[in-house]
Every structure is written in C-alpha cells, then in structure tokens.
Write a structure and sequence with these properties.
Layout lengths: L1 H12 L8 H9 L4 E4 L8 H9 L3 E5 L3 H13 L4 E4 L5 H12 L5 E4 L1 H4 L2 H8 L3 E6 L21 H5 L5 E5 L4 H10 L6 E4 L7 E7 L3 H12 L4 E5 L3 H13 L4 E4 L5 H13 L4 E4 L12 E6 L6 H8 L9 E7 L1 H12 L5 H19 L4 H8 L12 H4 L4 E3 L1 H13 L6 H9 L4 H5 L16 H13 L3 E3 L7 E3 L4 H4 L6 E3 L24 H21 L3 H4 L2 H10 L4 H5 L6 H20 L2 H15 L4 H8 L3 H13 L5 H4 L4 H18 L4 H6 L6 H12 L1
Parallel strand pairs: 1-6, 1-7, 2-4, 2-5, 3-4, 5-6, 8-13, 9-11, 9-12, 10-11, 12-13
Antiparallel strand pairs: 14-17, 15-16
Helix pairs in contact: 1-3, 2-3, 14-15, 14-21, 18-19, 19-21, 23-25, 23-27, 28-29, 28-30, 29-30, 30-34, 32-34
Length: about 700
C-alpha cells in the first residue's frame, strides 16, 4: 500500500518522500483507523488526508470552518489534477446543485464543507447514499470551549461516528496543548484514534518582542529595514486601529490593505483575494483574518497589540514562513496593552471559571513577553515541550537582555500606589515618584506624601517599564472599570516586607529593529547572486502570468521553494524538471514548457552573457586558474564559476576538470549539500557555512550542478 502512496506522492504532488509522520498517518488512515494529528503550520497536515482520499474508494469529506477559502482550496487541488468541490452558503444554487450531482455520481475525490451545513439533515441524508472515503476535521481545536477559536457547531461533529461508523476520521490542528488535545478526543469521539503529536517548534521563525514606543514608527522601521517588498500580516486589536494603520502604511509607500469583521463581506473577500494573489502585499487585520490562509511565502507577522493568549500568539505568528524559509514574528507591547486586556477580561460577562482560565492564559502570554531567557524555550514549554535548548533564533538569544535588581524601585512604585490611595493611574503615580508638581498632584496634596520625589534616579520611560513589569507579574492589579487605576495585590506583600527580591528587564532606551545581529531580509532570494536573482525574478514573472490566466494565487502554480530549486538546478528538459520537489505530472504537462523556456533563456541566452561564458570556459581550458580568468575578464570569481557551472550543465565540461579534490573530500561536500538542501531550499550559503567557509559558493554550485545531472 505504501508503494502506491509513494507513487501518488510523486506523480500527483511532485515529492519523492514523506515528512515524518505523514507516512504513518497515511498508512493508518488508509487502513481504516481514526487519527488525531497535531502538527505545526507548514508541516504538511493537508497531505495527511488529501493523499488517502486518492487511495481509498469514495469521496473524502473535509470539514472546515473556512468558507471564504474553500474555493481557493478547490482551485489548488484542481491544479494537481484532483477532483474537488465544496458546499457552502456562499455558492449560487446552480453550483451547489452541480456539486451535489457530482458527489452522487462518485466524481469527487474531495468535498469541502462547513460544519453547520454538514450537520443539516438534508446533507447527512445525501451523504448516506454516497460512498465515503473518510472524514477530515480540519482546525479541530475549534471544538475547545476554552479556546480562542471556539465554534459551537464543532461540538456536534461526534455524530459522524454514529451516523457513519465504517468511515475513518482524521482530526487535524496546529494549535492544541495537552488539555485541548484531550477535549478534541472526547468531544469528537476519537478515544481509539492513533495520535500523532509532531511538536510545536517552527525553527524557521525568528521571535522578537520589544517595548512599545511609538508603535507605528517602530513597525515602519521594521518593514523598511527588513521586509520592504515582502508579504506579511500586521495584527491589531481594534478595527479603528486596523484602518488607521493600513492607511498610514499606504501613505508610506507600502501596498497595505485593511481586514476586519466590520467591513462589507465583498470587500473582505476582495482584500483576501488580493493578499493571496499579489506579491508583497501587507494585510493589516484583526484576528478575523488568517485561519486557513495557505499563502506559503508570508515573510513576517507583526503584532501592534498584545494577543490574549500564547495559543493565539502561536497560531497567528505561525502564518509566517509556511514554506519553511526564514520568517519573522515581530511584536511590540507596553503597559497599556496589559491594562486594556486585564480590564476587558475582568469586565466581561463570562462565567467565573472561564475568566479564571483566561487569566491564566494572559499571565502566560505576559510571561513570554517579559522572559529574559530563550523565548522559543518558553513558548514550547507552554505546550508541554520542555527538552529544548536555547534556539539562537530569537531576540533574547541573539541579543541577551540586560537585567537589574529592581527590588528597591519596585518597593518605591508599590509604596507610591499605596500612599496615593490606590485610586490613580500610572502617569499620576509616576508624577509623584518624579516629584512633578502639576495641578493634579498639588490639588490632592500628593506633593506632601513621603513618596513624593523619591524616584528621580529613573526617568519616566524607565518608570513605565517598572510599572509594566509589576502589572505583568501580578504585583499590581488594574481597575476593571476602564480607568486604569492601579491597586496592590496579595502577591506584593512579600516584596514590601523585604522577604523577596525582584529582577527586572532593562529595556532599551530607544526601541529599534536592532539590525546589527538581525540580517536584512529573511527571504531565500536575499542570498542569491545577481545572475540567479535575475532568473528568480523571471520565473516569478512567468508564474504570475500563468496565475492570472488561471485565476489562482501564484503559489498554486508553484511554491517559491520549487522556483528556488529551478534557480539552483537549472533543469533543461522534462526529466530534469520532474526531479524537483513540487513538480507533479499534471503541473509538468501544464506549465513545464513555459518554465523551461525561461531557464533556457538564462542558461543559453543573452549574447553578452553567452560570449562571456564561452570565453571563460576557453581561458580555463587553456590552463588559467579561476582567479586569473576573473582578473582578465574583470568579473568576480563566483561569476566565472557560474560560467563553468553552465558548461557542466550543458556537458561541455566535466566536474573533474573544474574541481580537483580528493574523492573523500568531494563526497563530504556532496553529503553536506544533501543535508542542507531540505532546510535551505537549495541555497548554497548555508552549505558554505556548514563547511566552515572553506569553499567558494561558485565551486559548490559546480558540484551541485554535477550532482543533478
């Protein structure tokens, strides 16, 4: 059975091997067993049910809450030659009727359907007369009543086990801690399901959380410095802030659009379509946007406001870097974020048990923000993974946070809150500490308090940092009525009595993107030389033209990772193109000729480039060293190696003519290239770094080209 699965994987989806644990999930599901899959975004969850749908007789029914994205999913599957349809309230009657007829005739491999429509008696009756391959319950965490994406209709999906006892079910999610996993099992009647918990680490995402200080300007610097032309998502809590930020970014030259539930449905759909189909667009949105967005080359997710929980933060940041290439999760937050969320939580009408759970979730989120050790370790520990080493790819690893003994400052702050009657907000209390004699301070006699002027050793921003951390850590509470009034909590007693000390973060005086340790640009193309970058752009242009013709997002034609492989391998015929990841038989037939034309133009085309390549090869064959050829032609060494690589690709040169290395050393380089290929997307810079910088990039390219022949 798995031999057939591998054949379908290559011929339909264009991949040579499964990622763990896809093969075992598929084996269990095809064999008729129920399965629960928790796998990071970008880990390949969809394949876990799409491929079994092609191996089991009948139609696979995919339950999804994402009505707005169903048609895009259907269009993407059709590009693979997979017969798919959807049933939802957004479709006209004629399309619904056609899809139902195709379902009855057994002409669909996959059917996407919203849970509320699936559970209608008419739909259940329709399905009882159809041969069903499996049920896939996507975004299964929506069943959790305590979760941030709870959908009441998901609670009824346990009926599938009763109504269709012989049909295997697979539940999938990227966001489920141990408690939520157990809820999924119980509420969906999956007690006997095989469980595959892949873990939560997204090593390609770089996490950064900074102190908020003029947030929009901070965001602008981040985008200008690191993502000037990249696609990304900016999250804000309020609709007003979404619209203002999108308009402001547009004024600054960015292609930015707003998205929130208050916009007309047609406009939301239009903006979503543009985000999926256009390159380099920034979507400024509330949490109404994002679930199920399958755009693989989102290079950043930014938060201008604090999420309510670690789960929400993880899910939202996980929308970046689905292609496995480097991406950024960037956030700024401040004291007002903490106050606002605490007030919103305490003033809600939710039952006390739910509020208690939400308090715990917010405390965990604040802990992640204020941590001075590795953020990834803290994030993964929240989901029960406590065996990770510091990641080296978050702000606290790359630029360790300075800390200081804030015990005395904290006591002064708490005393000032207490002495002023626990009836004022942070700005008034800071005025007291700094000895500011404003009208409000004098009128209330607070200039006569013992705490008046005792905090002049810190400036206003430093005191705001102290108060933010005291509120975040629970030493100070916030008035739930919305006035920002601070009050002491039980937790502060030990600190005031001198029974404990307090270590605080020392925030940078001027927030910035701190580019020194953070490389400019995280997209894989940022590591390409000029010739490769030109080919990359031409391949993207060809993809865009085809996508517009087909009315699908560009990544549905080919992912960036596949284009990058084209750049690195430069295939010149169907057989060579077929070897690349993501090139199945249908896409090869539909688009192969167009992309081969583009590649051939670069490999053979351009009289100047072609003549230079011939001259380079001729001089090299005449006995000149690569460095000598470079000096004579006034080109870089890597450019000459690029010409030699062309010669190897066209079989004008043999690798042994270019690379004179012992066999053992050459085998070591080849093995390193293979090991790095999966993570680097074909880029050679990581290979060079793994080899200690001992070899020119151009020489490594020659070896790689020879490996691919």
């Amino acid at each position: 059975m798995m031999d057939e699965a591998l054949r379908v994987l290559k011929e339909v989806f264009g991949y040579d091997q499964f990622r763990a644990p896809q093969d075992e999930v598929i084996r269990r599901l095809v064999g008729g067993q129920d399965v629960l899959v928790v796998m990071p975004t970008g880990g390949g969850k969809s394949l876990c049910y799409q491929l079994p749908a092609l191996l089991r007789p009948g139609t696979a029914v995919v339950v999804s809450p994402l009505i707005a994205l169903m048609q895009d999913q259907v269009s993407a599957l059709s590009q693979w030659g997979i017969r798919a349809g959807c049933l939802n309230s957004a479709l006209p009657f004629e399309e619904l009727a056609e899809t139902e007829q195709a379902l009855r005739r057994g002409e669909l491999d996959l059917l996407y359907i919203a849970p509320e429509r699936l559970l209608q008696p008419r739909t259940l009756g329709l399905l009882t007369h159809c041969r069903l391959a499996l049920f896939a319950i996507d975004e299964a965490h929506c069943v959790s009543q305590w979760g941030h994406d709870f959908r009441p209709e998901y609670l009824q999906l346990s009926r599938l086990a009763e109504s269709f006892p012989g049909v295997p079910r697979i539940a999938l999610t990227a966001t489920a801690d141990g408690r939520t996993q157990q809820e999924i099992v119980e509420r969906l009647a999956l007690a006997d399901a095989a469980r595959f918990i892949q873990g939560f680490d997204r090593p390609n995402i770089r996490y950064r959380i900074g102190q908020k200080d003029r947030a929009r300007e901070q965001l602008l610097r981040f985008l200008q410095d690191e993502h000037p032309q990249d696609a990304g998502v900016v999250y804000c809590l309020s609709r007003k802030r979404v619209e203002e930020t999108a308009a402001w970014l547009s004024e600054k030259g960015f292609n930015a659009l707003p998205y929130h539930a208050g916009l007309p449905a047609e406009l939301r759909a239009h903006h979503q379509h543009r985000f999926l189909t256009e390159e380099g667009l920034v979507m400024v949105a509330t949490i109404a946007f994002g679930m199920g967005i399958d755009k693989p080359n989102v290079r950043f997710v930014a938060h201008l406001d604090l999420p309510k929980s670690v789960e929400a933060y993880y899910q939202e940041t996980g929308r970046a870097g689905r292609d496995g290439q480097p991406a950024d999760a960037w956030m700024v937050y401040g004291l007002q974020d903490v106050i606002f969320l605490r007030q919103m939580l305490e003033s809600s009408q939710a039952p006390e048990l739910q509020k208690q759970i939400e308090r715990q979730k917010l405390e965990a989120m604040l802990g992640l923000c204020e941590i001075t050790s590795c953020r990834r370790q803290t994030l993964l520990a929240y989901f029960g993974e406590s065996d990770h080493q510091p990641c080296g790819n978050c702000d606290t690893c790359l630029e360790p946070v300075p800390v200081w003994d804030g015990t005395e400052a904290a006591r002064k702050a708490l005393s000032a809150v207490y002495r002023s009657g626990q009836r004022f907000g942070v700005n008034h209390v800071i005025d007291i500490l700094l000895g500011q004699t404003g009208d409000k301070v004098r009128e209330r006699g607070h200039d006569r308090l013992s705490t008046f002027g005792i905090g002049k050793e810190l400036d206003r921003n430093e005191w705001r940092s102290v108060f933010r951390q005291l509120v975040a850590r629970g030493y100070l509470g916030v008035d739930p009525q919305g006035h920002g009034v601070l009050h002491l909590t039980e937790r502060c007693r030990a600190l005031l009595r001198g029974e404990e000390t307090l270590e605080l973060r020392r925030d940078a005086r001027k927030a910035s993107t701190k580019q020194g340790r953070f490389s400019r640009g995280t997209a894989p193309q940022s590591k390409l030389d000029a010739a490769d970058y030109a080919l990359w752009n031409d391949l993207r242009a060809a993809r865009k033209a085809l996508a517009e013709e087909q009315d699908v997002p560009p990544y549905v034609i080919f992912h960036d990772a596949t284009l990058m492989e084209m750049v690195m391998h430069r295939p010149l015929n169907d057989a060579q193109l077929r070897r690349l990841n993501g090139v199945g038989e249908r896409k090869l037939a539909l688009y192969g000729d167009r992309f081969l034309e583009v590649i051939e133009e670069h490999v053979r085309g351009g009289e100047t480039q072609s003549s230079q390549a011939h001259e380079s090869i001729a001089l090299f064959r005449a006995g000149m060293e690569v460095t000598q050829v470079a000096r004579q032609l006034k080109l870089s060494v890597n450019a000459i190696y690029g010409h030699l690589a062309q010669g190897i690709a066209q079989r004008e040169l043999g690798l042994s003519e270019v690379v004179e290395l012992p066999d053992a050393e050459l085998r070591h380089i080849e093995e390193t290239i293979r090991e790095c290929e999966a993570e680097s997307g074909g880029a050679l810079k990581p290979v060079q770094e793994a080899l200690g910088g001992a070899y020119e990039i151009g020489l490594l390219r020659c070896i790689k080209v020879a490996m691919d022949l």
